[in-house]
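Exercise 7. Predict the joint structure of the components listed below.
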Amino acid sequence: MNYIPNILFAIVLLCGIFFFLRNVKKLYRNIKLGRDVDVSDNKSLRWKNMGSIALGQSKMVVRPIAGLLHIIVYVGFIIINIEVLEIIIDGLFGTHRVFAFLGGAYNFLIASFEILALLVIISVIIFWVRRNVIRLQRFVKPEMKGWPKSDGNLILYIELVLMVLFLTMNAADYQLQLLDSEHYTKVGSFPVSGYLSMLFDEASVSSLIMVERTAWWLHIIGILFFLNYLYYSKHLHILLAFPNTYYGKITPQGKFKNLESVTKEVKLMMDPSVDPFAAPAEDAPPPEKFGASDVQDLSWVQLLNAYSCTECGRCTSQCPANLTGKRLSPRKIMMDTRDRLEEVGKNIDANKGNFVDDGKQLLGDYISHEELWACTSCNACVEACPISIDPLSIIMDMRQYLVMEQSAAPSDLNNMMGNIENNGAPWPFNQMDRLNWAKEE
Amino acid sequence: MGNELKVPTMAELFASGQQPEVLFWVGCAGSFDDRAKKITKAFIKILNKANVSFAVLGTEESCSGDPAKRAGNEFLFQMQAVTNIEVMNAYEVKKIVTTCPHCFNTLKNEYPELGGDYEVVHHTQFINQLLEDGKISLNGGSYKGKKITYHDPCYLGRANNVYEAPRDLIKKLDAELVEMKNCKAKGLCCGAGGAQMFKEPEKGEQDINIKRTEEAIEVKPDIVAAGCPFCNTMMTDGVKAKEKESSIAVLDVAELIANAEDL
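Solution:
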């Protein structure tokens, strides 16, 4: 017996898994560059959110057309992956359709894979048309130029090719079964590729085997390639949507976190027994930086958010600032955060595990002040995100840095804050006049 | 004068050994902004009519800190919060009602961790409760056949999932409630949140309040109802900019109720 295909297959499979795990390690390392945050609370609610939002796609269907198409592709890929299990076993042990012993159930499985594959092909084509022919607004915003655009299309091409290979493989297999070819046991039900196999009517057994084997190999190599493509792509969401919805915000959207470091300072100021001139203890840690100017200042959940973003643009299409022509786009906030995080990660790789200052940061080099000050904190982006990403929290953290570390608020806001400080209202009215309305006619 | 407003302060009641059931948090807009003061008074009329045991802080009230926090000044926010909490805890406040969704959100969600734990309700929720308890009654005759559209304030709706209380009140007015294409969880911001109220907008093609007003005008309402003094200002400005002020009124839900009752 010839073991070369088996060995070759094992090598290809191990390489695919090895590189994937290497990327996972890098991903984990980069996400952990963020500040620690305690998200160990409310486990049952978090599981429930993951179940309904990620697994159940509950927020995808807010937009019914995109939602339905997405569910088809999502279910298609999950179900068709059962087939991948068979392919791996066949590849390693030189068997052919090892699950065939399931009989009727196997026929049913193959038939449903085929129908799903066809539906996926149709959905992917519609997705492509929406991006490239109809050019839906949210897919052609400025931040979608270049790689993000190619990435979006590449994913669709890869999915299309994988599905076509799967059906071609089945079509050739079916034709071989009809010709009573050895090794190709009569099994499976081919509602879609049954029609395709007519193309192979005239083909000889040897060329059919050639087609079947080629499609089989390209299909599994394609899947392994796709697995390794994820790290470089917005398509990473197929994995990260799950942890991301688990760790997503569970408090009311309007509740913004109170900075603990500030609370400590405020308490000290309000405590009359504290000596304001006391020197800090020798071993006291340096004062914490307020807010965020770079990715390391964000929490690891916010960095996970950035890697999970699928760049669908639902946030941006609901953002009042973006809708009225301002430069702010919540999606760009997430894309910038990921790009900068990648840059920091590469810097660490290049410098033996240490980050060497590159004179750049997220604030200013990626996200402009203008974008940050355009936000109305209305939470439309947070509500719109189908996988619980919170762009608003990053905007707020960066505003905190601008105001508390740099005193760089727009002058109007400085006036407003001065008024609050001096007279307890955002306008210059005396606090002693606060009840005058009760006496006015 | 029978229709003079009764506005007791916490200090007065405290001096006479009384403890009101609820604190009416007026807010900066409600205290100082000419348009918002009318909303404050409309709500006071309802409170008086229902004989609610309430008080205001008056000169002891200070900005909740919301605009400072959303502008990024966490320090100023917490100073405001801690000061306000000290005052309210001294008066042993248990329940707060407010006409401002920004104060509502901040007091409800951001004060507890700083030592201020109160039951906080928006005035539309409070009025609903008064109706349910039979403390006031409504005959919405004056609004019969009027088309009212309701603009969701972000800090009441999305931020705190209060969508139905204001709508329930409008429905009780016998008026026709029409929804804008973007409403409830998808409601478009008026443009004032996140401290935008106090600054010029960043440059763009359009002001946000104009866009929102256009969405309101699309459903051809007689009245745009709001539940937030800042939304009210933004929508009023929008209606004026569209030269529709003679045909479309912008009113707070409290004003709708007070007018219907002819208080």
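Discussion. The mean pLDDT of chain A is 94.
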